[in-house]
Design a protein that fits this description.
Rossmann fold; five-stranded parallel β-sheet; alpha+beta; 2 domains; ten-stranded antiparallel β-sheet; globular
């Protein structure tokens, strides 16, 4: 019996029936991509807890939030995760196209805050609530338009009072103040925008992006906030900078939030408060993205 046959005998297929494009996926389609030796399949949501013991590999059919859910339990194991992006934006799946390593599947760098992990982004502030507030039925029916319809409502000034401390060549740097956006990212893209031109999959670190809040409120403040957001998401970032926009390559960071703040963690809501330690780590498990299109 070959190693491939032995390996594929114990594969669990996890299908999220609430994913934006879940209708694209089926057990038969997955089996056709990774082999006939499938052991079991399970559909989300489920009232029973997921048990990955006894499986050598997992086939994840859903969006980035579904992948994050699975990686939470297996990133420190030697399992192989096959990701079939069936969400609406699928930023993590699309980001893999910019990974130039010839090894497939391969270990990846993910973010970690407290005991929770994220595969590519943790962001709070302006527009980030769109990622977890879009209606599931609308996502399945209208796709990306389910997010677009909420953009104007989310175009508002945020004043996240926090301190972010990083190590820069042995020197501690503190960024303190009111921020319109606080983002930790390991991806060339987020929210559908390919803006992080400094992304390097081989680098085991990630990036910190902060956008300071505008001086004014109301209409004038919204006009002021337009320019840094346009600079970041439409023109992109390549070099580090420290002005209204703070963009730094980091391995880890300490963040202190004076009030509870809702963050978007790979498309799911995550509320953080107080002192938190964030780091980027290399997984023990291996990931391969397989597009069903």
């Amino acid at each position: 019996m070959t190693d491939v046959v032995r390996f594929m005998k114990n594969c669990l297929i996890v299908i999220n029936d609430k994913a934006g494009k879940c209708r694209r996926c089926s057990v038969d389609k997955v089996r056709g991509q990774i082999g006939e030796h499938i052991f079991k399949s399970v559909h989300l949501p489920t009232n029973t807890s997921l048990d990955f013991e006894g499986y050598d590999s997992l086939a994840v059919c859903g969006g980035d939030g579904t992948l994050q859910l699975i990686m939470q339990d297996v990133y420190r194991t030697d399992k192989t995760v096959y990701y079939f992006p069936c969400g609406t934006l699928n930023d993590k799946g699309k980001a893999e196209k910019y990974c130039h390593t010839s090894e497939r599947p391969h270990k990846i760098t993910i973010g970690k805050v407290d005991d929770r992990v994220f595969t590519y982004v943790l962001a709070g502030g302006a527009f980030t609530d769109i990622g977890y507030n879009a209606d599931e039925k609308n996502k399945r029916r209208f796709g990306v338009l389910a997010y677009v319809s909420k953009v104007l409502k989310s175009y508002k000034i945020n004043r996240i009072k926090c301190k972010v401390s990083i190590d820069d060549k042995g020197k501690t740097i503190d960024y303190v103040g009111d921020f319109n956006l606080v983002m930790f990212i390991k991806s060339p893209r987020c929210f559908g925008f390919k803006f992080n031109r400094a992304f390097d999959e081989k680098d085991e670190g990630g990036h910190l992006l902060l956008i300071r809040s505008p001086r004014h409120n109301g209409i004038l403040g919204k006009i002021q906030m337009f320019f840094p957001f346009f600079r970041v998401f439409f023109l992109g970032l390549k070099k580090e900078r420290e002005d209204t926009i703070i963009f730094k390559r980091i391995d880890s960071a300490d963040i202190y939030l004076s009030t509870p703040i809702d963050f978007c963690m790979d498309g799911e809501k995550c509320t953080l408060y107080g002192a938190k330690r964030l780091s980027f780590v290399k997984t023990d498990c291996r990931l391969q993205v397989i597009d069903l299109d």
